[in-house]
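User: I'm putting together notes for a lab meeting next week and I want to include a structural view of one of the chains we've been expressing. I don't have a solved structure, so I'd like a prediction I can at least talk through. The sequence is below, exactly as it appears in our construct file.
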Amino acid sequence: MRLSRSWLAALALLPALLLSGCGYNDFQRLDEQVKAAWSEVLNQYQRRADLVPNLVATVKGEANFEQETLTKVIEARAKATSIQATPELVNNPEAFNKFQQAQGELSSALSRLLVVTENYPNLKANQAFQDLRVQLEGTENRITVARNRYIKAVADYNVLTRSFPTNLTAMIFKYPVKASFTVANEAQISAPPSVNFDKPAAPAAAASR
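Assistant: Thanks for the context. Below is the predicted structure for the 209-residue chain, given as structure tokens.
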């Protein structure tokens, strides 16, 4: 009787030991880390999107500011915020790619906007604009940190998903490889904007009168 009970106890522990040995618990832990990292990425992108309307409104107050530059920022923000960034997005490479492209376009548009503002002395002296600029630059830094943490979390998770024998666990319990930010997207974000300063700024001419 005692022997039978011992065998029953061992059999009851077997599933837990098997799940632990095949990486199931690691999948749970790493999946939660990816979700937390992704949530922080979204928080920082949302923080940036929330800054854009005030930034655009402040710049609009500057006479003769380049309308094309403002329009591109407005359109890029609208495109970026139109994509529903759900937790499931990281499991859909195609949707994730569209999301990161939209965010990259907004980064590029904002970068150009800040470069163009150097041509407008009144904006450079505007305290409200300078405060928004500092907030935007700080947010861009936080975005970079959040993205790097997400990339690391996804890399750890994907190694487990692709490795043997944990890849069998991934197939059984449906843990797919997750999407991450690509090198091409990093290059797009870091590329300096092309701005033509050959044309004299109207505000500077007006200020000299």
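A couple of points you could mention at the meeting. Residues 63 and 195 are 19 Å apart (CA to CA). The domain at 43-146+182-192 is CATH 1.20.1440.20 (de novo design (two linked rop proteins)).

User: Perfect, that's what I needed.
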